[in-house]
Amino acid sequence: MSGTRRRAKKKVTIIDDVLETYRLWRIRKTLSQMCRDRGYIVSQEELDLELEDFCKQYGTEPSSGKPTRGDLTMIFMHRDNKRNVFVFLPKEARLGIKSLKALFLMMRGLNCTHAVVVIQDGVTQMAKAAIEDFKPLFLVEQFREPELLINITKHELVPEHEVLSDEEKKELLQRYKLKEKQMPRIQTGDPVARYYGLQRGQVIKITRPSKTAGRYITYRLAV
């Protein structure tokens, strides 16, 4: 008789389903707010979706597929450039080639080149390589689920941020007679920069409260 035994599959309890439903609701809410703050058109109904309404609409038994992560897929159009962003939650714990191929096919069908992917437990090496290889065609941003359980921009210690348009950036540099290399910087990997989807070369305006001036404004260049 073999000494190796299969590990018994963990039994899902009602509490597990309740907690998972709450997690999925929180993630969806943060994603909706994040897309709105990036300039995408998000309905007020979506932004105001409370846990009770989420449960009525999608169910309260994730272990039985009510809801599935696929049910939480969303697509939003940008109010300025009319381009779409595709929000995708793969069912696999680790994002692999199979899910990535499915994502690219859906994006192509929707004429969409930008996706936000919410990952449970990392990305396989092959999928990482494919994401890099396909960057000229598809931009795939990756967030882990724990990062989206709260909206970091709502924290009282995080000041107001606003991404400048290309024209606003040009006017800023001209007004202060600045070159890009002279500007303070922010890493694209910074949590707030990732929330706003900052790309290299973009400028973000940061407004902080000031006891003397009322407010204090700074600008940072994404690098």
TrEMBL record:
Pfam families: RNA_pol_Rpb5_C, RNA_pol_Rpb5_N. The keyword Cell division does not apply. SUPFAM superfamilies: Eukaryotic RPB5 N-terminal domain (SSF53036), RPB5-like RNA polymerase subunit (SSF55287). Coiled coil: none annotated. It is found in: Nucleus. Keywords: DNA-directed RNA polymerase, Nucleus, Transcription. It comes from the Eukaryota. One of its GO terms (molecular function) is DNA binding. Residues 20-104 form the RNA polymerase Rpb5 N-terminal domain. GO terms for cellular component: RNA polymerase I complex; RNA polymerase II, core complex; RNA polymerase III complex. One of its GO terms (biological process) is transcription by RNA polymerase II. Residues 150-221 form the RNA polymerase subunit H/Rpb5 C-terminal domain. The keyword Acetylation does not apply. Component of the RNA polymerase I (Pol I), RNA polymerase II (Pol II) and RNA polymerase III (Pol III) complexes consisting of at least 13, 12 and 17 subunits, respectively. In RNA Pol II, this subunit is present in 2-fold molar excess over the other subunits. Belongs to the archaeal Rpo5/eukaryotic RPB5 RNA polymerase subunit family. DNA-dependent RNA polymerase catalyzes the transcription of DNA into RNA using the four ribonucleoside triphosphates as substrates. Common component of RNA polymerases I, II and III which synthesize ribosomal RNA precursors, mRNA precursors and many functional non-coding RNAs, and small RNAs, such as 5S rRNA and tRNAs, respectively. Pol II is the central component of the basal RNA polymerase II transcription machinery. Pols are composed of mobile elements that move relative to each other. This is DNA-directed RNA polymerases I, II, and III subunit RPABC1. It comes from Steinernema carpocapsae.
